[in-house]
Design a protein that fits this description.
periplasm, mainly beta, globular, Immunoglobulin-like, signal, Pili_assmbl_chaperone_C, 243 residues, Pili_assmbl_chaperone_CS
């Protein structure tokens, strides 16, 4: 999950004063690291909780991968209810996401990846102890939102075993022949005693795509890699490098 402080006048709601002192502690907690939307479902939901001591204003929207896009710039076939809400201290709110009929125009042969943004807008701080020059930041969290068409019949749990690893010149290439998005967090040469991570920054493999991961400079026969599953857990796998 990504967290980012927002300093932009393009968003419709949040409060800024000055650039001297800041407060930027996220108090809205998301109960999930990703959302999978099976197209056969009427809706999916995400529970959020205000872990702070003050009310928070929350704005939620989806984007197509551009972290700088604003809600008014994105037109997607989904509705979030409520898009804006007030969450009291130690209370929760359920965000419901519903697909519009136009969602059937999305590619039905593979998953589509979007990002859910949840903007935590704290109330304005006031009182005698508040510095004159004070900047209050809104904190945004982003998690993956994956639309999974019901026409896909393959088992997503078997997808990691279908990844194909091969040497191509001086590169190590991993190919995803499945209709699923796969997030890899690490990959190692099984016989490397130092366990040097081949993808230290992680990797998101789109359906039916391939990527080079790192200059290929060692002998590799078996590869150990870790995948994040639908529930946010990590599963480990071992495969043999293709000739």
């Amino acid at each position: 999950m990504q967290k980012k402080s927002i300093l932009s006048n393009t968003l419709p709601i949040w409060i800024m004063t000055s650039l001297m002192t800041t407060a930027s502690q996220a108090e809205i907690i998301l109960h999930g690291t990703r959302i999978i939307y099976p197209s056969n479902n009427k809706e999916v939901s995400l529970q959020i909780t205000n872990d702070g001591t003050r009310p928070a204003l929350v704005q939620a929207w989806l984007d197509e991968g551009d972290a700088n896009s604003t809600p008014d710039q994105v037109m997607l076939p989904f509705i979030i209810t409520p898009p804006v809400s007030r969450v009291e201290p130690n209370k929760g709110q359920t965000l419901r996401i519903t697909a519009l009929p136009s969602s059937h125009e999305l590619n039905q042969n593979q998953e589509s990846l979007y990002w859910l943004n949840v903007l935590d807008i704290p109330p304005r701080t006031s009182g005698s102890n508040t510095p004159e020059n004070f900047l209050q930041l809104a904190i945004r969290s982003r998690i993956k939102f994956i639309y999974r068409p019901g026409t896909i019949k393959q088992d997503v749990n078997q997808a990691p075993e279908q990844l194909q690893w091969k040497k191509l010149g001086e590169q190590l290439v991993v190919k995803n022949p499945t209709p699923f998005y796969m997030t890899l967090t690490s990959a190692f040469n099984k016989t490397d005693p130092q366990k040097t991570d081949l993808i230290p920054k992680g990797l998101i493999l789109a359906p039916f795509s391939e990527q080079s991961v790192q200059p290929f400079n060692t002998h590799i026969h078996d590869i150990e890699f870790t995948i994040i599953n639908d529930y946010g857990g990590r599963t480990e796998h071992t495969t043999t490098l293709n000739p």
